[in-house]
Specification:
The chain has 325 residues and is an alpha/beta fold. It is built from 11 helices and 15 strands. The protein has a 9-stranded mixed β-sheet. A two-stranded antiparallel ribbon has the order 2-3. Helix 9 runs parallel beside helix 10. The chain is globular. The termini are far apart. The N terminus is likely disordered. Pfam families: Cyclase. InterPro entries: KFase/CYL, KFase_sf. One of its GO terms (biological process) is L-tryptophan catabolic process to kynurenine.
Length: 325
């Protein structure tokens, strides 16, 4: 191909990408003009009751990570790190007599207090639908001009997220590939996802919660650099197939962002975030601890996650659990 044809082809591809970007719009909810929770509307009493009835084990798996000073997070993007400090200590309350009860009482009953500060997307958390938008709008057409103040969003904030309960499915990529941790440049393609589902004999149903394990949690507590940089993830094609073809309710992963970082799409930073949150109204969970679940070879489970109700926030810290079915 000569230089002129190469240039023309490049211009045509760039033009097509620009047109596609302009046609991508924030989605309108099929659950009504006032909807703020998107696909979590799939939950209902009958399916929840059926899931609890299917539990045959008392074993509970904790899917949340610990919070600690120096933990991996989005500090590279300029977000504040997790911080912890003491507000009261036993010696300090004796000297300061904070309770006004006198030294003798303060020496008998010790008093300790502490505080934290963190980015809401720190540790195990679920992204709220106001986190990503398109062309000035978030899910269901809400705009920042009308609904975002100095106190956060008055639409689609973390306080609106209900307890997340559903049938969970574990996609264990390292187990499928016969390795401990998938490499940093790895992207799970749609083809490989379908092969994995067949090989592990998984059945994905409408309304499921699909969690991906990359094995990265091996480094979460021990090697921040290995955990943080050039992380693997799920391709946008695989994400689209799960949402549009399989009808899953939400997704999650043990990495920072579900999809790979840095993004594989140079024209769209984190396209999976935009697609899921702004276009499809599908919240998703990041930094899920899946090691014990994988070690026990539990592939199907009852998932329960209760996010903190942080008014107006773009994410809710989450302490999810799994009970095998």
């Amino acid at each position: 191909m000569n230089k002129r044809k190469t240039v023309l082809l490049s211009l045509a591809l760039a033009g097509a990408a620009a047109v596609h970007a302009q046609t991508e719009q924030a989605g309108k909810s099929p659950w009504g003009s006032h909807d703020e929770i998107g696909t979590l509307n799939m939950m209902n009493e009958s399916t929840t009751r059926a899931l609890f009835s299917a539990v045959r084990s008392g074993k509970v798996y904790d899917l949340g990570v610990e919070y600690f000073t120096g933990m991996p997070g989005f500090t590279e993007l300029g977000d504040p790190p997790y911080q912890f400090w003491m507000t009261h200590t036993p010696r300090g309350t004796v000297v300061g007599n904070i309770s006004k009860q006198g030294a003798a009482i303060n020496r008998k009953v010790s008093y300790t207090g502490d505080a934290i500060s963190m980015y809401t997307h720190t540790g195990t958390h679920i992204d709220a639908l106001n986190h990503f938008g398109l062309h000035g709008k978030i899910w269901n057409g809400y705009t920042a001009d009308e609904h975002l103040s100095d106190r956060g969003w008055d639409k689609a904030g973390a306080e609106k997220i209900p307890p997340v309960i559903g049938r969970g499915i574990l996609i264990d990529i390292p187990a499928y590939k016969g390795i401990d941790v998938v490499p940093g440049n790895y992207v799970l393609s749609l083809k490989e996802l379908q092969q994995l589902i067949q090989a592990q004999q998984l059945q994905i149903n409408k309304g499921d919660i699909v969690l991906f394990r990359t094995g990265l949690m091996k480094y979460f507590y021990t090697d921040r650099e290995k955990f943080m940089h050039n992380t693997p993830g799920v391709s946008i094609e695989a994400i689209r197939w799960l949402i549009e073809e399989k009808g899953v309710m939400t997704l999650g992963a043990d990495n920072l962002s579900l999809e790979p970082l840095p993004s594989t799409d140079s024209a769209n930073w984190l396209p999976g975030h935009t697609y899921l949150l702004a276009q499809k109204g599908s919240m998703f969970i990041e930094l899920v601890y899946l090691e014990e679940l994988a070690a026990a070879k539990v592939r199907e489970f009852l998932f329960i996650g209760t996010p903190l109700k942080l008014r107006g926030a773009s994410a809710g810290p989450l302490r999810p659990i799994a009970v095998s079915l």
